[in-house]
Amino acid sequence: MSTSAHPKLWTGVRAARRAGDALRAYDDDSFAYKTNGDVVTDADRLAERTVLDELEREYADHNIVTEESSPNFTPKPRWIIDPIDGTTNFLNGVPHYAVSIAFQGTHAADVGVVYHVPTDTMYTAVEGEGAYADGEPMALSETESLSNALLVTGFDEATMQAQHFEQFRSLLSVAQGVRRLGSAASELAMVASGSADAFFERMLSVWDTAAGVLIVEEAGGEVTRIKMVDGENSEMVLASNGHLHRDLVTLVSTGTVPEKYR
User: Fold this and answer.
1) Does 27 qualify as catalytic in the annotation?
2) Are the CB atoms for 116 and 23 separated by under 8 Å?
3) Three-state secondary structure call for residue 201
4) From the candidates 54, 67, 218, 235, which is the catalytic residue?
5) Strand ranges (DSSP E) for the chain?
6) Which of 82, 187, 197, 235 does the annotation list as catalytic?
7) What gap in Å lies between CA 246 and CA 144, rounded to an integer?
8) For residue 167, which of 40, 78, 235, 255 is within the disulfide window of CB 3.0 to 4.6 Å?
């Protein structure tokens, strides 16, 4: 892939890397709570400003959706940014967080960039051209049975409600393992790279998922997205290597373990 053919990809990569460099140099552990209960730090704002400076230099006429300062959805062409996906992990020194940047065009191809800062791994995708980790093609896992599958997920208010918790309990009962790691963008990249077999979470925002979903799809995985009717810009996302997808959709939508796993 040449830089001339994909200028938006390389703009996103540069922006993500510079934000990552800023986060590595950051040493203030103070934080505040947003109205929805999420943690926010000055590091989020610093990383966001670093990304925006890069985008505005190249594409000042494009719309921006970003978690901290501009969360309202806007028309394409647009950039969708999560400056730190996994802020609580970052704040507590847990090495699992990412800078997530997506471009969604009208006539140009969509682009996804997820930079896993602690491991210095750059996950990228261009619509129709595959997904890559540090420039190498990504490969999904070949796991075909939920009983052998490692699932990554997140907990939220919807999951803890009685009906949804039973569905989550069903996941626990049938999978080889279920992990809650705290960075949806990073975990979607894990599915795309084959280090996890599937990802599921409710009540995600578009900045959590826009880049990671494209990366999974371009790696050859399957993604189901359902908009939540909750008055917020949120959705449920289920992503997998494809082999597991039908069984996971059944389990997540009904809470019923498929017959073959009983």
Assistant:
1) no
2) no
3) strand
4) 67
5) 32-33, 39-40, 63-66, 78-85, 98-104, 111-116, 121-126, 131-133, 136-137, 150-153, 177-180, 198-205, 222-227, 234-240
6) 82
7) 11
8) 255
The pLDDT averaged over each successive group of 10 residues in the chain (262 residues) is: 72 98 85 60 92 96 88 89 95 96 94 98 97 97 97 73 68 90 97 97 91 98 82 81 95 83 82
Q: What pLDDT shows up at residue 57?
A: 95
pLDDT for the residue numbered 2:
44
| CATH class for the region spanning 146-261 | alpha beta
Question: What pLDDT sits at residue 158?
Answer: 56
Minimal CA–CA distance to 257: which of 171, 191, 184?
A: 171
Cα-based angle 95, 98, 102 (whole degrees, multiple of 5): 170
* 156 among known catalytic residues: no
245-254 and 162-174 are packed helices; what angle lies between their axes, rounded to 10 degrees?
A: 150
CATH 3.30.540.10 fits 7-137, yes or no: yes
110 belongs to the catalytic site: no
Looking at residue 77, its pLDDT comes to: 95
What is the pLDDT at residue 4? 45
Look up residue 74 and give its two tokens.
């806007």
What ranges do the domains of the chain cover? 7-137, 146-261
Distance CA 36, CA 154 (A): 16
